[in-house]
Sequence to fold (225 residues):
Amino acid sequence: MRKHDRGRRAFLVRAAVGAGTVAGAGLVPEAAAQNHGPHKEAPAHAHSNAAMHGAFFNQEDAATVAAFTERLMPGAEGKPGARDAGVLNYIDLALAGAYADLQDFYRRGLAQLDAYCRKTYSDSFSRLDATRQDEVITALEQGKATGFTWPAAQEFFNTIRTQTMEGMFADPVYGGNKDFAGWRLVGFPGAQAIFTPADMRSRLAFTRAPMIGLQAADERPKRRS
Fold:
């Protein structure tokens, strides 16, 4: 794992721990509040003319978001990344539901990202190597990526970074944090039926595995009456 990757992973993990770990999908990106401004018509490559990946993204945009979020939270041996935690699935479901007002934001942001990558590197983001993907992400973060109007480059970066954290650390019921990957990464025990007196007195890190989330519990076979 490259030093750059370790630094980015450490930043997001520290941010999650500092926020007390995202127990639900409560981190609404700032873009959602700004999404009622003057909007332009979505680009011609919009999803209606492309094969769908899931609830919202088409295949091309899904590949871009999967690659982007993995560079934000790269996996390593024994440490899950965005792909392992199902961050793409979380964002896809969120945009088809609670974050539906960000659909045009994502459509235009991804179209502008694609145009920037093709102009700068003559290929789409998902097809670039990791070094060039990181260069693109850095340009977005610093507001130096050209061709962005709405959303602005930094605004687009900040929204995807926020939703990557949500997909890593929110309750698995929202479609991310697969197999409690994010919670296990930061040592968050999740919901527990009971903490024993010994648990409460202990000064050691709590190591009991997270309880089965609502989504997994709902998928268990139902007993016949």
Q: What stands out?
A: DSSP finds eleven helices and no strands in the chain.
